[in-house]
Every structure is written in C-alpha cells, then in structure tokens.
Amino acid sequence: MIRILGSGRIGLRPLLRSWKQEFTFGGIQPLRQGSFQQRALLHWSAPRRAEDGKDDKGEAKDNNQKDNRKDGQKDGGEYQNFSDYFKSPQFARSLYLTVGLTFFTHMLGTLWQGNEEQEVMTLQEFKTQYLEKGLVKQLFVVNKQMVQAELLPQANVRNDWSRGMDFANRSPTVAFTIGSVDVFEQELERTQDRLGIPPEERLPVTYVDQVSPLQYLYPFGPTLIILGALMYMTKRARKAGGPGGMGPNSSGIFNVGKSRAKLFNKETDVKVKFKDVAGCDEAKVEVMEFVDFLKNPEKFKALGARIPRGAILSGPPGTGKTLLAKATAGEANVPFLSVSGSEFVEMFVGVGASRVRDLFNSARSFAPAIIFVDEIDAIGKSRGKGGAMGTSNDERESTLNQLLVEMDGFTSSDQIIVLAGTNRPDVLDSALLRPGRFDRHIQLDAPDVEGRKAIYKVHLAKLNLEPSLRDAKKLDVFAGKLAALTPGFSGADIANACNESALIAARHSDSYVEFHHFEKAIERSIAGLERKSKVLSPEEKKTVAYHEAGHAICGWFLEFADPLLKVSIIPRGSSALGYAQYLPPDQYLISSEQLRHKMIMALGGRVSEELHFPYVTSGAQDDFKKVTAMAQTMVTSLGMSKDIGYISYEQSDTSVQFNKPFSEKTARRIDLEVKRLVDEAHAVCKELLTNNLDKVDKLAKRLLEKEVLTRNDIVELLGPRPFPEKSDTFEKYLDRKN
Q: What residue stretch is flagged as signal peptide (predicted)?
C-alpha cells in the first residue's frame, strides 16, 4: 500500500518497515493556496510476514535455494497461460500498484489546487467588510475565476492569502470567486459609483493567468500510469508458456504462427495400445506396419523398399480413426505429433501456412517421428470448390499448398510419416491423395458382426459382469449375442452402449451388469429414451398397437423381410409412439425383391389402420419417407425400373447442381414409375393383411396387454416363421434352439 506523509491534513504516522524516499513538490498556484513548498514522504509498506522473523542464517539459506534453480528456468515460467498469471500474486501486486499510483496522482492534483483549510469569502462579504470601508489597495483577477484583493496594512484579515501572491507585495490579502468577469466589473463599478469614488482614484484591476507547469502533466498522469502497468504486465505474461500465454510454448498473439501440435513420446503416458483397438483388423495391420517402418527401417531398406510418406484413415464417424492414431502414439517409440485440421485456421492471414511449416520443422527435429492430422478436410478440401457457390478460400488454399510442399519435399532419410483422419475423403484435393504424399488410403467401415463381437470383448473386460459370464467361452457367446443385437453399430456406438448399461445397473443399485441392462441400453440407442410420462389416450394407444401389429405381420410373412426381434408400443424419443426392432443381415448386395418387401413392410402400419379404423392418422409419416426414398433409388440409381431403363440419374451430394440431370419429360416418367412401385407395394400389403386379419387382431390385443413383445412371444402367438432365416448370425446367437 502507499502512504503520503506530510503537512496539512495529512498527518505523520509511525514509519513501517521497508524503504522510503522523500520528494519535494513546488509550484505557483494562486487559486487557493498559491506558491507552496510541500514536503511529502512516499512510503512503501507491506504486512510483516511470518518468515520475516528469521535470522540471517535462515535468509541466507533461502537465498541459496533461490540461486540453485534449475538451468533454463526463467521468471514467469510458472505461468501456463494468461489465466494463471491473472490469478497470481504478481498480477495482484501490479494491480494494487496501478490503483495506488493513480490515487496518488489524484491527491497531488488536489494539493496543487490549493489547501482546503484556506477559506474563500463571497463577493458580498468582500464589499461589506473591506471595499466599503476603503481598506482595499488593488485587485487581481486570477484565471478569470478568482479575485485576490490586496488590502491596506491596517486591515484586519482572518485568512491571509498573501503567501501565494508572488506578483503582489506581501500585504494582507483576501480572495473570493466570481462567475463572470463582466458581472464582477459591473458590480465593482456600481459599488464605487455609489461610494462616490472619482475615476482617477478607483481601484486598479490586474488580470493574471497563472498555471503551474505541473498542472499540464497532471491530466496525463493516470493514463501514463495505466499504460505503464499494462506494459509491465504484458512483459511478465510474455514469459508465460502454455496455451493462452505468450512464451515459447504458448499459443498467444506473439506466437500465433507457431504450431499447436501436441507431442507424445516415450515419457508421455498414452494408455491406449493396439490391443485396445478391435473390429478393424486390416486397418490395424496397416498402421502397425508404419510403426514397424520407423522402429526397424533397415529391414525394409535392405530389400530396396521405401518408407511410405503417409496414409489417410477414412470412414464413417465412430469407426476408430482417432483411436487407431492414439494407439499408434502409445505403441511407437518415436515422437508423435498430433494436431487437428481446424487448428491451422486462424483469423490472421498467413497463419495456417506458418503453422504447417513450424509443424514439419518440429517433426524434422524429432525425426524419426509421426505426424497425425485429425479432420484434415478442414484444410484439405479441393481448391476452388471449398466455399459457397463454388468459390475458393485463399487462406485455406495457401495452407493446403504449404502442406503439399512440405510433404512432397520429404526425403526418405527424414523418416517422417504423416497420418491423417477424415470423414469426407471425397472432398479432399486430388493432389493431396496422390502417391508420394499419402501413399496409402486406409478405409475403416462399420464393423460386421465378428468385428462388433471383438469390440464388445474389449469393453466387457472393463465391466463388472455377473459371475456366470466370467468364463471365457460364455463371455464369447455373450459378446456375440450383443453383436447380433446391434447391427450397424460403430465402435463408438458399442462403447456408448456398454457404458450406458453400466450406468443403468448403477441407477438400480445392482451389483453386476446383466443382459437386461444391455437390452435397455441398446433400445435407448436405437429408439431413444423411454418416455413413460407420455401417456396416450386409449384410442391413440389402440391405433399405435394396430399400426405396429401391421408392421410385424408383414415382416413375419414376407420371405425377404428382416427378422423381427421385438415390438413395443411404449413411446420413445421425441416423436416415436412405438417401434419394432429387426435384425438386418450384414450383406453387401440387395435384390429388387428385398427392396419391394421392405417397402411392403413399411406400409404395413398405414394399411392396418385402413383396415381397422374408419380414419387414418399421421403416424405413418416416417414410413412414407422411407418408402419414397427406396422407390426413387430403385428407379433413378439402381436400374430396377423397366420403363426408365438402365440409367443412373443419381445427383451428387458433394457439389452444387442447379439443373437436374434429366429433362422434364423424364422427370414425369420417373414420378409415374415411383408412384407405380409404391402403389404395387400398397396393394400387396393390403392383400397380405386382409388374409391375416385375425393374426393382426391377436397381436394388437397382446400388445395392448403387455406393451412389449419379444420374438418368443410372437412365436407363441403366430407360430414359427414360414421361412428359414437367411442370416447365419441369427441362427448362431439368437435362435432359441442354440
């Protein structure tokens, strides 16, 4: 804190510990006090800390400890970012110092403006006490604001202002303020006229403009102090490292062109290993080979092989691209630099290219090393096609050009491999994908049933399962059953389902995670959260039951329909009032008959409503979207329409098209063909449900009674399905006989 010790109201106080310095301020200020010599003591003090009582030996010991810091440790290095510095005692002291000096400057200005103890009279008092009695010698108008009157020696003055009048004799002096010089002159003239003073004997009036030189500096004092404090704090913060600071390892404004890549090496504890990656064996082998390239380069060079420059990991979200990169960082005994594509993008021009250069310079200093760029499509989009309406982005293109140059400028001795991950390989620039830059394109698709089974095994090992599943063989069957129940799930979906099942078990205070917990978690992932609070009216519930029964009957009696696992009329999610769970097989080809049966099954809900109620509802809206999409795909993309023929009119999703790839006449034919396919499916569906009305009624009534029916319940009601299941997965894991 700061204390001013001096005369006037500012009394002397006992001196505290620490240093002190004496200043003398001088100047002429006739407004209220005039010229003065003010002695002030600027005293710095701080509360006495407990450790201040240590003897000289203790202080010497502390000094030795400070001197024995590690080499390279700089002042301010303890701050990881701006936020840490703003919370530090150094910032608090700087802030207190700034506020104190600003207050000190304000106090000095108050002192320069005069002494508060010197009283100023009014004009009326001056006229009554001095002017009318003839005790005034002359008048001084100072700065057009104050009048100081020099009196005759015999005048009795209570508050003498003569000390501040270097421009007058040392006679008694009084002062009063005026609002306007013109008004003062008029009042003075009227008073002297009334007193009958001749013009040649009237009081002389002198106009004085008097300002202390320090007053010119006073308005700039607080500003200069604040600017100085900001410069000091900025200097301290520049020494700070970490993200947000401005040190050598920071990402602040002074290092905006530096790479933000995170370094992983032998000392970094990366817990993910290749054994934690499952369901993508081929991709894992490819990436493991890259690690082997760097660990044993002589084995490949002896055969004349060249180490690949890089590889792109592409695939749908959640298939394990980033996880595979993490495993690479955990397994490789070489430095691993990880960075996101969006981290090259900045508001400043040229920053992206600068960060690319800095990234590769860092990798060369660590060589052999691996660079992983996640979501590379943020900077790797095709040039001239990345913006809206086909426009280009110069900043992004300059970043991409720098990346192309850095990758193509490698030599095999650099021993630097670049891995990249993206969900959209179709939008990447062709120059980036050519051999010599990214030599290998590794595709990670959604896992099949065996891949899902392997992923489940990885995640089940972390859960506290019931004791009966701790046997390896039983655990293998259990993982296969879960894999069969989750067709189309990615690795991220499976991890989420396992975690959700453990949360459900904990919510019910169960000791182990059991199969019914997994069932609830899978249903939540597929259909959404069960909404028991969403109460349907009896009529709505009956409509939903017959709607779902229509879907189930169609799927049960159509040969190429997917096997039915469960049907429910409990509302789920935001809009679903009921749902049916099927088991689509892992297949890569689909026939026209399969598509027709899917369309018929999708229309089963609306047709069931038509047969059992006088009015239909809006519950089939989503079904119609699916049916229309399948029919349009059959006609425009798959060549499954005899009228349209074997032509593909599929429109690209990666570019903007203003014109359709077909004429208006062809568009009319496509519309008619789509309508024909949907009408045929509707007719077949109506015939099928009409022939099985009793089964629809039986299934709907059981649904109203139990709300949820499993496959075993449907077998008891309708008998075995008339067609053998075409999925080996179903027979292996879900058939009751096995």
A: none
